[in-house]
Write a structure and sequence with these properties.
The protein is mainly α and about 80 residues long. It has three helices and no strands. It is elongated, with a radius of gyration of 20 Å.
């Protein structure tokens, strides 16, 4: 199965086409500024890999009970 076929099989999700258009615009923006398309795409892939790793570690840091929240500053005169 080619990459193109894999992308086409995912278009049943409503956001995929919009995501692709936004990614194309993002790459084009940097290409117009002088970057090479393949370098921009590689950079996006690197950033996505880091984001994926962070998300796998902790999908929602706000739900982590080990995080200490800042105390509220709701006392009078504060």
């Amino acid at each position: 199965m080619s990459k193109r076929e894999r992308i086409d099989t995912r278009t049943d999700k409503p956001y995929v086409r919009e995501l692709r258009l936004r990614l194309e615009k993002l790459v084009d923006e940097y290409v117009v500024s002088g970057a090479k398309a393949l370098e921009v795409i590689a950079s996006i892939e690197d950033e996505l890999a880091e984001m994926k790793t962070a998300y796998e570690r902790d999908p929602d840091p706000a739900d982590d009970p080990t995080l200490v929240e800042e105390p509220s500053n709701d006392w009078p005169g504060g």
